[in-house]
Amino acid sequence: MEALTNRSKAVDRRPMTVWEKMYLPVIAKGMGTTLKHFFMKKPTINYPEETRPFSPVFRGLHVLNRDEEGRERCTACGLCAVACPAEAITMEAAERKEGEENLYREEKYAARYEINMLRCIFCGLCEEACPKDAIYLSETFTPSNFTRQSFIYGKPDLLIPDPVKEPELYQKAKGERAKKN
Amino acid sequence: MMLLSIDLTFLLEKAVLISAVIAISLVAAMYSTWMERKVAAYMQDRIGPTRAGWGGLLQPLADGLKLFMKEEIIPNASNKFLFVLGPGLAMMTAMMTSAVIPWGKEIHIGEKVVSLQIADINIGILYIFGVVSMGVYGIMIGGWASNNKFSLLAALRGASQMISYELAMGLAIIALLMLTGSLSLRTIVEQQSTGWWYFFKQPLGFLIFLVCAFAETNRTPFDLPEAENELNFGYHQEYSSMKLGFYLFAEYINMFISSALMATLYFGGYDIPFVNDANLVNSWGVNAVAALQIAALFGKIFLFIFFFMWVRWTIPRFRYDQLMNLGWKGMIPLALLNMLVTAAWQLYRHA
Predict the structure, then answer these.
(1) ipTM, 2 decimals?
(2) Residues that bind [4Fe-4S] cluster 2, according to the entry (chain A) (predicted)?
(3) Is the pTM of this model over 0.90?
(4) Distance from CA of A114 to the nearest CA of B (A)
């Protein structure tokens, strides 16, 4: 059969020459190669302590954002759920009561907000659809759990830490990807 | 009554020495496994174990613990006594060789002169060959007692390999003995500390000995009894838990001991390189020099162990026919030639 690519190499099946039959010179050459590699710089990244730098378009787990005063931005408009091609997002809206102004930014908020992380394909369309900058994909990834049920993330899992009360945790969860506000 | 009047201090001295040598060979073998993993990793552009302890130094302990915790399986159809005996025998023969290796000249404790060698017998090399040949029993019994035809085949393969290479090894040693005129390892070392190392007088002999040592310890490129990737282990196929650990561990002890042997026979043993040991004793004292000598010997041993590993992670395994061809048609004629040339040279010199 004719070669499909020009990358194939014919195996050299000539009998060994005297030089090769002595084994030792060729072995010495090979050992030179391994010794060279012994002193080479290792490309290993010690994963949990070190990570590879993310691309600016990296899409990890979702985060529900808060504004500067720590109020939830989400108004449960449902645009993200509509945009989601995997139908991973469900929510229930509720009306803000008297005295809850410090919790929710607008009169309507999401009482229940769930993302099924096993359905999610991390396309980022929810982030694009959101008019309030309330949801975005962070740099957190590789979630682990024992049951499938626990991969349905509710509001406690998704909400970002309060920027007023826990500014450090907030910055960490926010990462580099969130829009500048 | 002479027989009953045992010198108690002598007994104590030897008991301490034996325990020390056993402990040191075990620890050295243990840390050879760590070294093996590190060397393998570095040669393959990886970094090896780093998690257990600093630089993965506790890794051998973790490995040992894992092997102890594993379920112990003895196959129903196996010969139980031999099945248990096999790994023990492999371990024992591996350890026994260390008895005649001189680890240093001597130390002085008060008035007492303690020689750093368990037994300075005048047939040291013969003893080593006797014990090393017994290493085949560990493999054969393990393969036979498993009652598994593949284990048995692998054991046969291993035994025939060891026997083939023992011949060439013995012939290489005979050439060396023509120069030394003694079978005692201590005498051989003493000769080297005053004159040239025997490596420079017997380069071909050393090369043959080295290749045969690889075959004797079942290391790559001659690890056909194991052949872990294509034949899936071989003679210890049926073994599990620490019994398997014993077999694997015996290989590392063998490697340590044969490194010590090569250093002793060809590289001056405990002789400190580039220095006249006798002069050093005058200025530094006996004990300090003994410590240096032990350090020198261990340096040589670890260089050899590194070499074993370096070869293992460089070249692939020989095919069985290649192995036998090399052994019978390459090594033995070469060893015979070396022997004849040495004999002729000795005759010419002394005539």
Answers:
(1) 0.78
(2) 84, 120, 123, 126
(3) no
(4) 38
